[in-house]
Amino acid sequence: MRYVIFISCLVFLVGCGNREASVESGIHDGTLHVGNGAEPQSLDPHLTTGELETNIQNAIFEGLLVPDPYTGEPSAGAASHWEMSDDQLVYTFHIRPEAQWSDGKGLTAQDFVDTYKRALSPALAAEAAIHFYGVVGASDYGEGKTTDFSNVGFKALGTHTLQVTLIQPLPHILKLIMHRSWFPLRVDLIEAFGRIDERGTRWTLPGNLVGNGPFNLTAWRQNESILVEKSLTYWDADNVKLNRIYFYPIENVNTEERAYRSGRLHITNNSSSIPLARLDYYREEEPDHLWLKPYGRNYFLLVNPDAVPFKDSRVRRALSLAIDREAFAEVVMKGIWTPAYNLVPAGLDGYKAGKQFESDLEEARRLLVEAGYPNGEGFPDVEVIYPPRGENSRFLQAILGNWQSVLGVNVALKQMEWKVWLDTLKQGDYQLSTDGWNINNAHRFFQLFVTGNLESYYLWSDTEYDQVFDEAAKALTVEGRFAKYDQLEKILAQESPLMPLSFAKRSQLVHPFVKGRCENAYDVHPWKGIYLEAVE
């Protein structure tokens, strides 16, 4: 770990008359109603990078490993158990014999091998391909240097035994395997709708998509809702308490909060979805509806280093140093965010970088003068692009006002529909943009800025950074790896391809009827563990 006008939401919000509210009826029929932020770009796990797509994918697919609902750490999923070799290079996963696809076909180790071959197909150019590059031969196959997949370290040793061989020990590999890119796919059915390396075919539509997760995709009404229903073929169906989940693409946080307040939603969007104007009300009047928990997510401004004036690292650093993060977090965002002065949220895998810089107006002005823009004179027209999620415009206006007042720099805002925004980032057609990721391990945060990473599609490239990242990946001790992480944080702080803003808390409205959400370090809550129960 991206403005759809929700015409049908008018019906959703006000068209129900005196009928029982969804939050009430959901208890009786096991139906959960969830705000999901925006219309998904796709449901193909190999071609998506956003959290809102992942919310749905987590319901209809299941990987080898899944997050433990209590700790968020890797636990048994489609694989009942696994072993690691003494040299930490070979992992053997045992697929549950009882695991099935939603059409009743048995899940096999070969399904995983075929899936990973598809993910690495050069013609597909999957954003997710980089997640497999720690596997023997994967990068050569993914980059088209070889066409022989038998040389890649994925092997089906039997119907239900999958072997994965790594180039070198990867301490974060089990967390990585929980990522959606490792979900199994029915490649034979994908081929029924086109080539396996063809993007945008109809295999992800209801009636076509066959998954192996606790729910099946049964309806997708564009810009209105996505419905998943309990899968009767899922190996652990007896422990799935919900019968169905509706996901609603409501992008406007005020509209969503009204939907929640009127009893149409059990859970709001999981990315800063509480209008700040309503936050104090929920804190004081209905704290049992407020879910405000820390998790591994950062927010930052992304810089296009190929765009004027950001080719000059002094300009990038000047703007970053001028941001008053403390006031931004405490006053503008009312304490739901923590000021960020580095990339990786503290505590992931035990790593803590600490502040890599301080806000410094004097140094910011000096750098801007040095770059040829004293008091903002001659500074070109610049705009920040952003999707209409949460309070994006509010905090951006605060930052832009800060830049104008202390540096004399004027920057404009441009809002884009979620899908358009994602495509614009991929095409590199921007100067500044908001962005943010929630990731369950430190290593993947640093990987976002490695040259050529298709998952993040960032344009900044630095040979020293790439080298140090490679050294971090090869480090055999925690101490050695963390030392390399420190170097990476320092390079990012100096070169400023991003301007860290905050580490977010998960800010959602969750109805007290919703049970099974356990607080953990990553704030992950598998759908199979969620259920509804009336509050006495």
Whole-number tally of structural domains: 3
CATH class call of the largest domain = Alpha Beta
In spatial order, strands of the major sheet run: 12-16-11-15-13-14
Give the distance, in angstroms, between the N- and C-terminal Cα atoms: 38 Å
Query: Hey, roughly how much beta strand do the residues contain?
Result: 15-25%
Q: What do we call the CATH homologous superfamily of the largest domain? A: Dipeptide-binding Protein, Domain 3
Quick one: biggest sheet? 6 strands, mixed
CATH topology group of the largest domain: Dipeptide-binding Protein, domain 3
Structural class computed from helices and strand pairing: alpha+beta
Q: Judging by the overall fold, what is the CATH architecture of the largest domain?
A: Roll
Query: Total number of β-strand segments?
Result: 18
Number of helices, where a helix is a run of at least 4 consecutive DSSP H or I residues? 17
Instruction: Characterize the overall form.
Output: globular
Q: What is the averaged pLDDT score? A: 91
- Which stretches of 5+ consecutive residues score pLDDT under 50? 1-19
Radius of gyration: 23 Å
Helical content stands at 25-40%
Can you describe this structure?
The chain has three domains: 1-60 and 213-268 and 510-536, 3-Layer(aba) Sandwich (D-Maltodextrin-Binding Protein, domain 2); 62-203, Dipeptide-binding Protein, domain 1 (Alpha-Beta Complex); 293-506, Dipeptide-binding Protein, domain 3, CATH 3.10.105.10. It is α+β, with helices and mostly antiparallel strands. Helix 10 (313-321) packs antiparallel against helix 12. It has 17 helices and 18 strands. The protein has a six-stranded mixed beta sheet with strand order 12-16-11-15-13-14, with helices on both faces. Strands 1-10-9-8 form a four-stranded mixed beta sheet. Mean pLDDT is 91; it is low at 1-19. The two termini are 38 Å apart.
